Amino acid sequence: MGRTRDAGCVAAGVVIGAGACYCVYRLTWGRDESEKIWDDKESSDGAETGVETEKRAQAKPGVVVTARVEADSMVKAEVCLGVKSGPDVKVEAHSGAQSGGGLEAKAKALFSILKEQASAKMGRGGRVGLGSGTRTLAPSLPCPGGRGGGCHPTRARAGGKASGKPKGKPKSKSTKPPAAAWPARRVKFNFPYKIDDILGATDLQKVLNILERSNDPFIQEVALVTLGNNAAYTFNQNAIRELGGVPIIAKMIKTKDPIIREKAYNALNNLSVIAENQGKIKTYISQVCDDTVICRLDSAVQMAGLRLLTNMTVTNHYQHLLSYSFPDFFALLFLGNHFTKIQIMKLIINFTENPAMTRELLGSKVPSELISLFNKERDREILLNILTIFENINDNIKSEGFASSRKEFSRSSLFFLFKESGVCVKKIKALANHSDLVVKVKVLKVLTKL
Q1: HSE value, Cβ hemisphere, 13 Å, CA-based, for 357
Q2: Partners of 96 in the beta sheet?
Q3: 253: buried, middle or exposed (CB in 10 Å: 19+, 13-18, 0-12)?
Q4: Are 54 and 72 in contact (CB under 8 A)?
Q5: Tell me: the pLDDT tens digits for 355-380?
Q6: Nearest to 274, CA basis, from 305, 303, 232
Q7: Where are any strands of DSSP class E within 314-384?
Q8: How many whole angstroms separate alpha carbon 385 and alpha carbon 382?
Q9: Which of 128, 166, 387, 434 lies 20 to 30 Å from 176, alpha-carbon distance?
Q10: Are residues 112 and 90 in contact, defined by beta-carbon separation less than 8 angstroms?
Q11: Counting beta carbons within 10 angstroms of the beta carbon of residue 349, is it exposed (0 to 12), middle (13 to 18) or buried (19 or more)?
């Protein structure tokens, strides 16, 4: 009995060891081969399983029902907790296949059932953590830069509903009109050109006709700006004169609208660059001078008028037409702001460079406060301009022999301020130590001529 027991134990150990080795082989090295076999025979096994299942259902209906109940419970658990990977499910089936061929067939059938039910649930839109899945387009989300049907993909939910709004008619066209469709603010007249267009003779004639016939200040302003911009080019300066444009533009300086007068002065200023146009503009120079003096101080109209007068006095031909306004110019030189002072000085320098205008300049009544322009705290440009005026006046006095004509000029005249009072010379000598080198050189040049 002892030997028989020992032999039985050895045989049982051998059987158990062989089974354990087989299980290890099936769970590890044999897994890949079994997966290939299952994948290759999946379709055929499914058919065979279906036949076997039907037969089993006829013979043993309770077993099949139990298997299906177990499969449903396992699928529900898998959906709740996340679908398990394919190898894990197969391992469970493999563990059940160790008991024999019939058990292995049952495991395969169970696995097929599980796979079919999981696929059915996934096909209904279930998204349970897998990398692949269905994607739908949400019609409620607009494309970038577009309207209506969307370009943004969203993942489908269980039940087949998209994550956006429920599907309906795609809103391909908005009910609201686009921003560009709103009517723009209408003006009284649509001007046919842009103000910076370079026009030919035919188009310039049209603009001149519009300016001559229109009483609308807006149209007049646009036409004058267009003509002024075109008058910056030499070929159009001649064209505007030949088309009779100078009288039409000069007519606008009689209006009461300061903006219209400013634009008219700017256009005439550009036209006055050439001598032929100056011959046409000289007719209106007195009117321009009067308006420039009496208009609001430091205004845009005044600056535009001063620029036109400065261009008209570059040559000596028309300076005598403005000699009656010298006292007004010196008053503006004292009262105006920095920019007005600079422009007035440029105008006066033009007069001082013409010796024929010396007598009128020296006899002009000037404010005594004008001496403050020689103060060293003044701007560099103002100091250089006032020193140039003094230098030119001093040179003309010597060349024209006015040094001995002291009785001819009053104590409020420019002659008395510059020559007789001596205050001006003292102010200039005080500028010899100016920090600006250019001003210092200019002062030394003036002092050497005294």
Answers
A1: 26
A2: none
A3: buried
A4: no
A5: 999 999 999 999 989 999 999 899 99
A6: 232
A7: none
A8: 5
A9: 166
A10: no
A11: middle
